[in-house]
Structure formats: structure tokens, C-alpha cells
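Q: I'm building a small set of examples for a reading group on sequence design. Run inverse folding on the following structure and report the sequence directly after it, with nothing in between.
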């Protein structure tokens, strides 16, 4: 496992120090869980943005429509 040194604001340090009350075995477990959640949230936001952009350009892009149709060939209904 990687190790690192990080600085936290006082409020964040207080939150981390309450790790047991949130059911974590140690401070590191709480921080790892928080980082995992943040990563998932950022990935979902990127997917939302990508889908929104795709939906925005799709109606006017014949090539994109063709690529999409080919990709859907054989896809279960």
C-alpha cells in the first residue's frame, strides 16, 4: 500500500478523528473510503457530461448516427 503525507483543514481533521463513530477501523480506512466515493462521483460526472455532449451533437451528425447504428447491430432489444 502506498503511503503519503497530507495536510487537512481543522474541520477535516476533526471529521477524520471520528473514524470509529462512522464504523471504520482506522483513519486511513475512512480516508480511503472517502477517496473511493469521490473517484466514483467524478467518474459519474464525466459520464454525464459525455452523454450530454453526445445527445447534443447526435441529431446533427450523420456520421455519428451511422457509427451508432453499426454499434447497435446485433444488440439485444
Amino acid at each position: 500500500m502506498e503511503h503519503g503525507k497530507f495536510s487537512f483543514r481543522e474541520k477535516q481533521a476533526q471529521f477524520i478523528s471520528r473514524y470509529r463513530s462512522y464504523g471504520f477501523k482506522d483513519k486511513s480506512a475512512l480516508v480511503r473510503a472517502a477517496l473511493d466515493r469521490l473517484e466514483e462521483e467524478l467518474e459519474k460526472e464525466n459520464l454525464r457530461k459525455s452523454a450530454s455532449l453526445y445527445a447534443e451533437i447526435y441529431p446533427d451528425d450523420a456520421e455519428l448516427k451511422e457509427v451508432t447504428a453499426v454499434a447497435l447491430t446485433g444488440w439485444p432489444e
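DSSP finds three helices and no strands in the chain.
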